[in-house]
Amino acid sequence: MEAINYVFGRGRAEIFSLVLEQNGFHGGIKRFWKIVVLQAVGFYLLSLAILLYLNFGELIVIAVPFIVATLIFPLNYLIQSFINENRKRELENIIPDMLLQASVFPKGTPIMKIISYLAGTKQGSLSSEFKKCQNEIERGASVEEALRNISKRNKSKIIGRAVRLLVQGYNSGADLCDILKETAEDMMETNNILRQRMSTLIVEKYTLLFAGGIIVPLVLGLLVGMVNGLNFSSMAELSIGMDSAQRTGIINAALLGNILYIAEYSIIASLFIANQENNMKKALIYATFLMPASLAVYHLAQML
Q: Which residues contact 67 (CB under 8 A, 6 or more apart)?
């Protein structure tokens, strides 16, 4: 456990344990760590065997398997974070409808009856959150504390805002049905604004992914294939242009430049898209899939 706290930091280890629990990952952070270590060893041995079979140079055989094994941990961490973010978005989309449904209760309805209703609506993760809230109250926690724990567990501004309005309404003695209706309508308006914003950004997102994964490497690969198909031997016989050694050096430098450009484009596109989504953790996930795909398209295009 000390090694886990050293890698994550004690506070972050507790937060990540909660993330795993919310994602339905059983066994906690210790089991997660064991799986990551086994994956790292497996991918290290697999990549080492492939590189040795293909007779790559000594430096590549040493460096690449180590890099692959090192990336397993951050990739698994980001995947779990990505799953948790999607769960959070699901909660944010469902909660206005649930609150609007709960607002049809008669005036003066006790808050425990409303919480019990929200816990039994069978709306996935959100129902589970209100079920936890109900259980905490039944075990002796105050209504305010149990509601605030929903916000603490999910780290969402939208959910936190809804919880704050519920707590304020409960503490002020205002009619909860009116509070629920106003909260739901406010959140629906906010969600509509966010959807409109996302619709304008989604075109840019997929344009970058399509360009970085297909168009740019395809064009570069086709150009390389055309150049490789040209016959320069007749020009050399006529003493026109560069000799064979110079030409080979320039072509090899251009080929290396193409690969570096494609890799750089993939990284920049991934960072830009992740920044658009206000979640820089996704940059590594996008780059992990975009870079190999673009390089594969580049090499396949040379054969056309």
A: none
State which H helix or E strand residue 170 sits in: helix 157-172
Instruction: Kindly state the tokens that stand for 292.
Output: 């190999």
pLDDT of residue 38: 92
Torsion from C-alpha of 91, 204, 78, 60, nearest 10 degrees: 170
Phi/psi for 144 (5° steps) reads -60, -45
Three-state SS at 304: coil
Q: Residue 192 is which amino acid?
A: N
Q: Is the pTM of this model over 0.85?
A: no
pLDDT in tens, 81-128: 888 888 888 887 888 887 787 777 777 778 888 888 888 877 777 788
How many residues comprise the chain?
304
Cα 50 to chain centroid, rounded: 29
Calculate what percentage of the chain has a pLDDT beyond 70.
86
pLDDT band at 304, cuts 50/70/90? low
Largest CA distance in the chain: 99
Chain position carrying tokens 């973010």? 85
Exposure letters 174-212 (e unless 16+ CB within 10 A, then b): ebbbebbbebbeebeeeeeeeeeeeeeeeeebeebbebb
Distance, in Å, from the CA atom of 232 to the CA atom of 95, rounded to the nearest integer, reads 68
Tokens for 238, please give them: 């006529």
